[in-house]
Design goal:
The structure is a homodimer. In chain A, β18, α17 and β19 form a beta-alpha-beta unit. By secondary structure, chain A is an alpha/beta fold. The first copy, chain A, has four domains: 235 residues, Rossmann fold (3-Layer(aba) Sandwich); 170 residues, 3-Layer(aba) Sandwich (Rossmann fold); 77 residues, Dna Ligase, domain 1 (2-Layer Sandwich), CATH 3.30.1490; 112 residues, 2-Layer Sandwich (D-amino Acid Aminotransferase, Chain A, domain 1), CATH 3.30.470.20. The longest helix of chain A is centred in the middle third of the chain and has 19 residues. Chain A has a seven-stranded mixed beta sheet, with helices on one face. Chain A has a seven-stranded mixed beta sheet with strand order 9-8-11-10-12-13-14, sandwiched between helices. In chain A, α7 runs parallel beside α8 and α17 runs parallel beside α18. Chain A is built from 26 helices and 31 strands. Chain A starts with a helix and ends with a strand. The interface between A and B is large, with 101 and 101 residues.
Chain lengths: 696, 696
């Protein structure tokens, strides 16, 4: 990848002879950007562009350039790619649109391009991309004139859109390297990450993702990289993911977006929800060491903003630190009625002592020096009036920072005169450990993300996300497509030691009576027949059969119903099942197109859709992970035993989940699987019914 | 109130003789602000300040000024107030801090000040306030030099902090009138609202609230005003409200913040969650007519941002409009593979036609002219390079607006060069119906708030929020303080026609047997005795007593337990209750210190704390409102009958809620009341147990 970012020579194919407004001439941009390497141009007709001689064909080039940039109409791209790879060029950036981003024909063209490249050991970025911008080296493939930052940031953006290159100031705050992987036809986010892992010019990685291939490999790569470099990701398309059809409860309860969320969190990637949070979080990581704890000290010129900041802390999972007693002893004697607490309302002290700046400075020093304060937030007005010339926050901050050797984060919020705010923020821009935010919400969002990152670092590294190779499946092959219910599905469960409610398939009334007597009343009776897949809807299930007389009557009723509805049907028998009373849970599987099998546990029965109380984990899971899923449920207190009620037998639920996740990895064709309900009792848990959806 | 904002004359008491930095001299600020009225100064020693002659005492003033501004140390404030009211001054602004904002002594001082004023028919703004700023008239009481906006906005801020005056640009975007009511010792938000209702210089009202007195009156006032002027409110202190102690489920389930939320929504006030949303919403109302529908057209220079905008719409309750066919017919023929949809990805068309600006213009016109599009959002890059001088969004917008006679909102998001973005946004600042936002999230937040407002306007006006006078309570007086349980509580319910589970208090075993035979097995047995308030915990309740033999045994067991634990206790009898099976609900009451009695309904039994599925309404409620509460529950599908299960009898639940809310208004001393569970069956609903908390 490095030569994609730092090519010693480049050939531009499809560059217009026009320049200036409306031309989108990438040669012009490359020259403006101060590219230090050698530029070649290929043009079939025009002998030179902007004074650079062109070659009519790639084959005519005097050397093999490190990189080719192709910006032709889509139909002419495959031929150009062929020319490049035949000439030995190993790196291609295909700017052109109209490929997998457009229609079926475009998809085929893209496949052609990628196949051609791979056959010759070449790699392609794009198509449908603005390509690469590297302000450190002075290289750009963009057809937009993005000004080169003379002091590039150690923040690299990997996006599926050029907008993050054009609008870096708006989206990530500062510009570093950036790559738009576009349709990611060949080079994908995993490869770029592998390069950035060891890139000394990259300290922070920002991902804009619309989707992903090689999801498990991505997770392994990301989980490794975040140990040294934070990864901030925005995953878009949340609404579209919600619209997909599903054939089971599990399918409808767990959208793709929730799985993305889960997967990123397991890998330790900081997911941001929107662009406001993205800017705030990038700013925090650019300026701050990650918080070492969640406790903030807050100073404000007005009590009202102390309350607002406290609300924000609660919203984003941070806390207010206890007020430092040393600071209390120093400041409280200055004013008879003012009690200090955190957030510190500076105004009364500022008025009494005659110096707001002085109180601002002393309070922040007192907070930052206290061991129980992990970072600080300061809200301060900015005035333009000469009446307030005494207020000089930047000067105060520089003094404060001398008392902050650990570089605990100090977030500053200015309000007041707009131009003066911008000027003061600029004055502070270079101070390590200090950052100015546009709102207290953004400051707290940013700080909270650094604390999330610290917590990722402090927890044990996640295991290998790689999916195990499917073992020989214990119940033979499943049909390649379709829905399995009833015995067929239950037999798959049985093969994976999932606990089925005890049952006997009775051939006649006497057998049913004997079975019920053996297992004890009450029991459930069910018609078992290939012709009765919808046995519940057809009245083929009798619940709560309380005694022998009712069983005999019920058996006869079911037989009569069977004969009446399906006179030619083959009856396997009447299933006599133990009637189990317990808490109804849902366990299930869903295969995600990006991350593979996902295990689900939640509230079941009639509460399933109503409560949407589900926990998820990438399969397979360890017993610890399964137990963690159960703890994450809202109904967990009920499972554990709440308000004088007995809880359920958690170890058997854990075992069920672990076994179910093994089933998932052995059967990669299972798309969705529902166990609903799983009945959990104080002694055990029981699978009552199952539905398995196989195939695409 | 008007003379508070436009005093013809003002006396400043406590003004420093110092001026300039650090002096916070309010005379200096008033002069800078261009006050057109007459200024008097009172100072015991200094003969003149800034060339203005002082009087040693208020009594010496040659006239009675419209307004006095007091900024003395707190101990000297009551005497100054006395001097003012004795001189006949009717309006006071008490700037000084250290009153109810500080300690008990301060609270007393504040009460003194307010009492003094009221005794003389005078009114007080504050204490602990920056007071009033009116840029239309040129009046300020602030001790900060806030620059006077020559073109004030029709947006008035009513805050409990001066920060919203100092930082108007940061918090509401533009400055209009502003009042800091501070501790609101006398003048409160209701009175200010009543003034603003008819103030021609106020078109939008922004409230910053830390709390409220006269909550119901506030709701009536607000609900009336929002018919003509939107009210945007930030209520702070969400985290503090969560910390309060509660003695019942209802109490713990319904925090004060949730009640504030409910009350503001019932009145039609637009509550914003944080300052980011506040700025976005103010900007939307300043520039836009409220959306007439939720359907937006979106144009963007990159497909990626179309997806991001779609995500935002879903987050904030707006929708993407269907793509206009007229626009498709006009644009799609220009490019062979590009299919258009909403959001419109402009780039391919811009490249093919050679004019991004042209496509931008035509697409927005096509969207805004379509009847199914209620507003539009445009994301566009801003370049500084002369290579992109052809892109002129402000010029395009002006042309677009000629095709937008209905002034459908057009929100613009620039990204790219920061200075150029600010300049282009400024160019568009005066265009009606156009607003520039800092992020797409803020644009959608703002637009969504105008749509919420439109929906408030379109729904029927809420009824009178005034609490009815308590009727003669049907069950006599309750103890002034304490917790009522068991029969004592149930008797209160009975008086309000709340359906109690049928029960007979049996004196002996034979009586119990007869009662059970009458009502039918299974039954519940309960020890009833003043000594057994904790009967459940003490084993004084037997559930599911299935037949006569078990009843006889249970009766004897309970008697034995009673005699053993409380040998001297007086046994009222053993209550035989019908064992009802049904869906467990919680109904309850909570008295809010700000808004009075609140009715609660939710999931009950063991699910109460786990699910926290509750609906709330200010009591009393109509049957319609009670039915609406039930519909708002997550478990409503279960109540209605989901997945083949019978539902419950909703009319009896509605009646129960209505009756409970009447009980609430008749007993203003009830602080919390729990009916948990209420058992709902297909035929009826039944209150099984009750706990009533009375007093403070």
């Amino acid at each position: 990848m490095q030569r994609f970012f730092e090519p010693r020579s480049v050939v531009l194919i499809g560059t217009s002879r026009q320049t200036g407004p409306g031309a989108y001439n990438n040669l012009e941009m490359l020259l403006n950007y101060g590219y230090p390497g050698h530029i070649y141009l290929v043009h079939p007709k025009v002998p030179d562009i902007m004074g650079y001689k062109t070659s009519p064909r790639v084959a005519d080039l005097p050397e093999v350039p490190d990189l080719a940039v192709i910006s032709l109409g889509r139909d002419r791209v495959p031929a150009a790619v062929r020319d490049c790879v035949h000439h030995g060029i190993k790196r291609l950036v295909v700017i052109s649109q109209g490929f997998a981003d457009a229609d079926e024909k475009g998809k085929e063209l893209q496949e052609d391009v990628v196949r051609l490249a791979r056959e010759h050991g070449a790699r392609v970025v794009g198509p449908n991309t603005m390509g690469i911008i590297n302000p450190f080296y002075g290289f750009t493939t963009a057809f937009i004139d993005v000004p080169r930052d003379p002091n590039p940031a150690p923040l690299t953006v990997v996006a599926q859109s050029g907008a993050f290159q054009v609008g870096a100031v708006s989206f990530t705050g500062r510009m570093g390297k950036a790559i738009d992987i576009g349709n990611a036809g060949d080079v994908d986010v995993v490869e770029v990450l592998e390069y950035l892992e060891h890139d000394p010019q990259t300290r922070i990685i920002v991902l804009h993702m619309e989707g992903i291939t090689r999801g498990r490999l991505f997770l392994n790569t990301a989980a490794r990289i975040i140990r040294t470099k934070p990864i901030i990701a925005i995953k878009t398309g949340r609404s579209a993911a919600g619209a997909q059809a599903a054939m089971s409860h599990t399918g409808s309860l767990v959208g793709e977006d929730a799985i993305f969320d889960l997967a990123l969190a397991e890998a330790g990637v900081i997911r941001v929800k929107n662009l406001v949070e993205m800017l705030a979080v990038c700013r925090a990581f650019l300026h701050f060491e990650p918080l070492k704890g969640p406790r903030l000290g807050v100073v404000t010129a007005t009590g009202a903003f102390g309350i607002i900041t406290a609300d924000c802390c609660e919203d984003y999972g941070l806390e207010l630190a206890p007020f430092p007693e040393a600071l209390r002893e120093m400041e409280e004697p200055r004013i008879d009625w003012h009690k200090l607490h955190n957030p510190v309302d500076l105004w009364p002290l500022g008025m009494v002592t005659g110096s707001f700046t002085g109180v601002f400075k002393r309070s922040l020093i007192g907070l930052l020096e206290d061991g129980r304060v992990d970072g600080a937030v300061a809200l301060a007005p900015v005035f333009v009036s000469p009446c307030h010339a005494d207020l000089d926050i930047p000067a105060a901050v520089r003094k404060i920072q001398k008392h902050n050797p650990e570089h605990k984060p100090l977030a500053i919020l200015f309000y007041g005169d707009e131009a003066a705010m911008v000027a003061q923020a600029r004055e502070l821009a270079g101070d390590p450990g200090v950052a100015c935010f546009d709102s207290v919400d953004e400051a707290i969002m940013g700080l909270a993300a650094t604390w999330r990152y610290r917590q990722f670092l402090e927890r044990p590294a996640p295991g290998d996300f790689t999916l195990p190779e499917p073992a020989v499946s214990r119940r033979g092959r499943l049909p390649s497509e379709g829905v399995l219910v009833g015995e067929e599905a239950l037999n798959v469960l049985k093969a994976y030691d999932l606990p089925l409610v005890p049952g006997v398939l009775a051939a006649d009334e006497a057998g049913a009576v004997a079975a019920a007597a053996q297992m004890g009343y009450p029991v459930v009776l069910k018609i078992i027949s290939a012709a009765w897949l919808h046995k519940s809807d057809w009245g083929g299930v009798l619940l709560n059969v309380a005694n022998e007389a009712k069983l005999r009557q019920g058996f006869r009723d079911l037989l009569a119903r069977f004969r009446q509805r399906t006179p030619d049907g083959v009856l396997d028998g009447i299933l006599v099942q133990k009637q189990v009373k317990g808490i109804e849970l849902l366990c299930g599987l869903k295969r995600d197109p990006q991350f593979g099998p996902v295990l689900v546990a939640g509230a079941g029965g009639i509460y399933t859709e109503v409560l949407k109380d589900v926990a998820r984990a990438l399969a397979p899971v360890t017993p610890d992970q399964a137990a963690q899923m159960l703890r994450a449920l809202k109904i967990y207190p009920i499972l554990k035993g709440a308000r004088g009620q007995k809880g359920v037998h958690l170890p058997s639920l854990v075992e069920t989940l672990v076994n179910l996740s093994r089933l998932a990895t052995d059967y990669p064709t299972i798309r969705e699987l529902d166990l609903n309900p799983v009945l959990a009792t104080p002694e055990a848990c029981w699978c009552v019914d199952c539905r398995i959806v196989v195939g695409e």
